[in-house]
Write a structure and sequence with these properties.
mainly alpha; elongated; 135 residues
Length: 135
């Protein structure tokens, strides 16, 4: 394509291509009549033969899949069982860092008896729950 071509020249070329295509293409009526004549002279479609062929193919495919799946042994290769056993016994080399020396402090929830009673003394239950500090 020429970059110096203006829009009018481009339109003219596309118009010429469209006319050439129209000259080469057969008319719709002619194509329609041909198709109608061909359908009248063609032998009737044997849909039951196609259906039976497709059903037989599907059954054959299903039989092959079942044979392949059921015929294979269900055992794992020997290396897989060893790897699974060794992974189950594995321990992290930094596991000791997760254990605190005072694990008693971390496993129990602290109890503050009496503190909450003194803070909310004189408030109703809903006021104690919805209590907000006033400025």
């Amino acid at each position: 394509m020429n970059p110096d071509m203006d829009d009018n020249q481009l339109r003219q070329r596309f118009h010429e291509l469209k006319q050439e295509d129209a000259r080469r293409a057969p008319s719709f009526d002619r194509v329609w009549r041909r198709a109608a004549a061909r359908s009248e002279t063609a032998p009737p479609a044997r849909s039951w033969v196609r259906l039976a062929t497709m059903a037989a193919g599907a059954m054959l495919l299903a039989a092959v899949v079942v044979w392949l799946v059921s015929g294979r042994p269900r055992t794992s290769p020997p290396g897989v069982q060893f790897a699974a056993a060794s992974l189950a016994d594995w321990q992290s080399p930094t596991d000791f860092l997760m254990k605190a020396s005072d694990s008693d402090l971390l496993s129990a929830v602290p109890q503050f008896e009496g503190v909450s009673d003194a803070m909310f003394a004189g408030l109703s239950a809903t006021d104690a729950v919805n209590h907000k500090e006033k400025p």
